[in-house]
Amino acid sequence: MSEQNQPQQIQMMQRMVALAEKQTSLSVDRSEMSEVRSYHNAERTLAVWVRTALSLMIVGLAIDRFGLLLYRAPGGPHSSPLAHGLLIDDASIGTCIALIVLGIVMVLATGFRFFAYAKTWSGRHRFPAHHGPYLAPFFAVMVALFGILMLAIIGIAAT
């Protein structure tokens, strides 16, 4: 090999090493961005489950308050004075309580699962700005407390 080609080869190898280092740093950045997206996806999933649990609780309350489960038309073969108006039907209150309890269990389970995921995730990564492992599960617990309050109110109204 001639001595003139050696400096060109060395320069070309240095450029290849620099390009490889640049690609490696870009790959690390993409990997970290992917992990952040994964965390945000977990937060969105928690929000969807909280919304679903809240909807179950509200539907349960509507069934109880409006007697939607066993409403009987006036003058029909199974009508009675107790089945109309705002009086509480046993099947309606049972369904209401079941839906609210299901909502409470759902929101607590998803809140605790997200918290466990966030703690595991934080062991390997830094949280995005204005995020942490406590805020989202706190809202899940607040929705569960709302459901418990609804159960207490329905219990008071049923007596």
Give the terminus-to-terminus CA distance: 100 Å
Major sheet summary line: none
Estimate what percentage of residues fall within beta strands: under 5%
Mean of pLDDT? 79
Number of individual domains: 1
Q: Work out the oligomeric state of the chains in this entry.
A: single chain
pLDDT < 50 stretches: 82-88
Structural class by SSE content: mainly alpha
Q: Using only CA atoms, what is the Rg?
A: 29 Å
Structure annotation, total helices:
3
- Report the count of strand segments: 0
Overall geometry comes to: rod-shaped
Order of helices and strands: HHH
**Which range best describes the helical content: under 10%, 10-25%, 25-40%, 40-55%, 55-70% or over 70%?**
over 70%
Please explain how this structure is put together.
The protein has helices at 5-66, 90-122, 135-158. By secondary structure, the chain is mainly α. It has one domain (36-158). The longest helix is centred in the N-terminal third of the chain and has 62 residues, at 5-66. Mean pLDDT is 79; it is low at 82-88.
Question: What are the main properties of this structure?
Answer:
159 residues, mainly alpha
Question: What is this entry, summarized?
Answer:
With 159 residues, this protein is mostly helical.
Task: Tell me the layout of helices and strands.
Elements: H1 5-66, H2 90-122, H3 135-158
